[in-house]
Amino acid sequence: MYTQMVDVEAAGAAGEEQRRFDEKLDRGITIEPKDWMPDAYRKTLVRQISQHAHSEIVGMLPEGNWITRAPSLQRKLILLAKVQDEAGHGLYLYSAAETLGVSRDELTEALLTGRAKYSSIFNYPTLTWADVGAIGWLVDGAAIINQIPLTRCSYGPYARAMTRICKEESFHQRQGFDVMVKLCAGTQEQKAMAQDALDRWWWPAVMMFGPPDSASPNSEQSMHWKIKLFSNDDLRQRFIDQTVPQADALGLVIPDADLRWNAERGQYDFGAVDWDEFYRVVRGDGPCNRDRLRARIDAWEEGAWVREAALAHAEKRARRSADATEAGSAA
Ligand code: FAQ
Q1: Residues 96-125: pLDDT tens digits?
Q2: d(Cα 255, Cα 253) in Å, to the nearest integer?
Q3: How many Cβ atoms from other residues are within 10 Å of residue 32's Cβ?
Q4: Whose CA is nearest to atom 41 of ligand 1?
Q5: Which atom of ligand 1 is nearest to the CA of 119?
Q6: What distance in angstroms lies between residue 121's CA and the mean position of ligand 1's atoms?
Q7: pTM beyond 0.70
């Protein structure tokens, strides 16, 4: 009898927590780290934010490949700054994930052991300088479209991290477009290089938004929780509608024979996406998956001495400050 009463009370309290959580979502009030939240909401956020953080860190590799070969000092400086920004984005996002009760070490381990996902787009190679332009233009362009709504998502630390990230992504997108503008105004060979980069990056960029809505297991719940505000297909369509006129302005041709303006819908119709390729890459069998993971493992192992030195330094400082306090109170 007594046990039953306790259960009812507990259920009532949990029901009240859930009601307050739902009310906050309805009223557009952000959920903060110390607020009560359903376990599944927390789990979904850890999944999405950590995948996003891993994507930023792995995403440094394709462009990092061109830092030593940038065609001028100015391009090199810009590219260095951009790649550093991506590292910063990873750090904000890992910090946002940590507010949900997971540790950075757990997240890093999941990435390095291949358990965690990161964006499919970063498993493609950067073969020419034009790929640096195509990544800024298309990949950062797609990232902005996906991420601007996230600045209004329901979890406060994620939304706030995204506000700063989006400002930087906007600069990244413009620098990529600027590389493409210069190549397209250059020699025939340079323009051909730009076209070749568009040919190789277009479909992977279209796939970045995730599987079609009909095959997206997480979308419905994430939209209910206002973690995602728009569906994968809606954002994909927005990206295509925005990017086609930019390709026209560059004088480049999007590699899709079925792409045409649909006046009735006021949107572009586009061809079939090769979802088999997408799932192959997500499963770990893309052109660069193994290289990307190897590079992250090597960086982690080679950086061990830096982490140890930073810890030793922090301990020394803490000890000195404790000694100074003790000496002060003894005097
Ligand atoms: N790649 O049910 P959904 C950037 C997975 S950052 C790999 O639709 P959800 C900046 C998905 O995780 C790019 N896996 O999933 C930059 C799920 O698997 P799970 C990263 C993918 O979460 C630029 C399964 O498929 N951006 O580019 C992909 O509701 C240049 C079923 O999918 C973000 O992470 C994919 N493309 O929607 C950096 C943005 N798509 O976990 C450097 C935040 C889906 O159940 C250089 N994330 N999957 O095992 C999101 O908006 C969402 O997580 C989606 C996926 C839209 C990516």
Answers
A1: 999 999 999 999 999 999 999 999 999 999
A2: 6
A3: 12
A4: 47
A5: 1
A6: 10
A7: yes
